[in-house]
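Figure 2 data, in text form.
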Amino acid sequence: MSSSSSSTTTASNSNTSDKKAIFTDTEIDAFQGLDVSRLSSEDIIARTRLLDNEIKIMKNDIVRISHETQSTRDRIKENKDKIKVNKTLPYLVSNVIELFDLDPQGEEDEGANIDLDAQLIAATNRVDILDPALLRSGRLDRKIEFPHPNETARARIMQIHSRKMNTNKDVNFEELARCTDDFNGAQCKAVCIEAGMIALRRGAVEVQHEDFMDAILEVQAKKKMNLNYYA
């Protein structure tokens, strides 16, 4: 009898060990205190549906994380390209300065081919980070500044770029223009595009005034990030 009892105990312990090996800790916690044999068919179906919903949520999270990861990789690649440009910029500037300082008559005497009709046009939207040598007197004959649009112009720009969008009648472009101080034309256009994307993400059929306000915050954040990058 003792031997039989010992054998039964050993077999029971072995079965318990096998179950622990088969199920993970999470699954064991889920089934603790739950007697499946006592559940009705309706309860089992309901629990199955809950599991299906959890699986769908997990799949959506996987897709979202994959998208965010790819976006991060794209931004890293873009920043690497910007770093390469910034590394070559000093050499480009020095070459331009050297061209400015050339004496066409002297170069012709030395046999160099200088085109006296050539004109150089330089453009930038970040005058504050230019090499001072480029702005030195005599380097550029004319300096033409195109300032940022004023409040009226900003309102008109956003109206133009949102005319093909289904906007709510309560959208106040004058208020949006007041909230976009120091925005250039491209940034005003970006506000309209971002507002449309925000409305699209929440499944709306028209763009609300609040969507434009949220879009302004998004564009301001990107603008600040770019300024910090060039600082």
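Caption note: The radius of gyration is 34 Å.
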